[in-house]
Amino acid sequence: MAKTKEWKCVKVDWDSDGITWVTFNRPEKRNAMSPQLHYDMEQVMLELETDPDCKVIVISGAGNSWSAGMDLKEYFRETDNNPQAQFRSFTSNRHWSWEMLINSRKPSIAMVNGYCFGGAFVPLCNCDIVVTAEDAIYGLSEVNWGIIPGGIVSKVIVDTMAYRDAQFYAMTGRTFDGKQAVQMKLANIAVPKEKLREETAKLARELMEKNPIVLAYTKQAVRAVRTMDVQNSYEYLMTKIQALRFMDKAGTRETGMREFLDKKTYKPGFQSVKAT
Ligand code: COA
Fold first, then answer.
1. Which pLDDT score is estimated for 22?
2. 175-177 β-sheet, strand order
3. How confident is the model at residue 216 (pLDDT cuts 50, 70, 90)?
4. Whose CA is nearest to atom 13 of ligand 1?
5. Long-range contacts of 72-79 (CB under 8 A, 24+ apart)
6. pTM of the entire structure?
7. Ligand 1 centre from 115 Cα, in Å?
């Protein structure tokens, strides 16, 4: 992707070491997801997926909000009587925030800097890892304005949160903060807001020390077996192990074996092997 490329509702910044910072960029609307934001994200995700300079995708929001969910005016009300426009934006939303994120080979981190409501739970849950500001505010607010958590929200919350928490927050519409999100395992790490970017970058760099193809296979394996029974999980994982040996042209496994067993130069319990 041209590093200077501009988008209407999304901003993309590149770190020289491989972190790509993707920012929802409608701060005046608290980064509510309009059709245009979905079209931008669809293109951005497609381009990042095939750009070798992108090693980790970090998704954040401009201003004091990660995202206030779907844009109630542009995404819902303005498309209510326009089935074509509705189909187009609903499909785009599903494509990037569900299919593309979960099938991406690049590690993704949601860096939650502020409000996260309703439909924003879909990309939130479909990122691999979540780092949140301690004071970020989360809410499944749908019940408060007369709808259910649709657009796959109910599905991602029960897949990610404990059933009791998902049901409680969906039914009450109560908000919770970043620290509570970590207690509930909706987020991995909560940090003070002023440390958010630094801690996220540290985590991204840790991921970049791994062999990227091994990391891609690892995240896809963990995600895929969630919906499989034991027998299918075993078959799937055995097949993927073989596929990875073929796909990893750097021979990371063989290097690791040699360095640990023969040269005694490396401890796999503590560090990533550097394939040569
Ligand atoms: N859809 C459309 N517009 C939204 C929006 C949404 N989900 N969330 C915020 N906005 C707009 C507001 O209408 C307002 O627009 P205006 O300046 O043209 O009046 C602007 O963003 C700022 O919102 P405001 O409510 O004034 O900001 P705030 O900082 O006081 O409060 C929120 C922020 C996020 C708490 C509040 O806007 C809110 O509750 N939003 C709805 C969240 C929600 O229920 N989302 C679920 C959708 S699936």
1. 98
2. 65-67, 115-117, 137-139, 175-177
3. very high
4. 29
5. 72/32, 72/145, 74/32, 74/34, 74/35, 74/36, 75/32, 75/33, 75/34, 75/35, 75/38, 79/35
6. 0.96
7. 10
Task: Determine which residue's CA is closest to atom 14 belonging to ligand 1.
Answer: 29
DSSP state of 142: G
When the pLDDT of each residue in the chain is averaged and rounded to a whole number, the result is 95
As given in the structure block, the two tokens for residue 73 are 């005016």
Q: What are the structure tokens assigned to 85, written together?
A: 């426009």
Which tens digit of pLDDT belongs to each residue from 18-43?
A: 999 999 999 999 999 999 999 999 99
Q: Where are the domains of the chain?
A: 10-208, 212-263
C-alpha radius of gyration, the chain, whole number: 20
Q: Atom 42, ligand 1: which residue's CA is nearest?
A: 68
- Domain 10-208: CATH superfamily is 2-enoyl-CoA Hydratase; Chain A, domain 1 (3.90.226.10)
Q: Classify residue 111 as exposed, middle or buried by CB count within 10 Å of its CB (0-12, 13-18, 19+).
A: buried
Provide the token pair at 19: 């972190």
Distance of alpha carbon 234 from alpha carbon 246, whole angstroms = 19
Instruction: Assess whether the C-beta atom of 74 lies below 6 angstroms from ligand 1.
Output: no
CB 181 within 8 A of CB 113: no
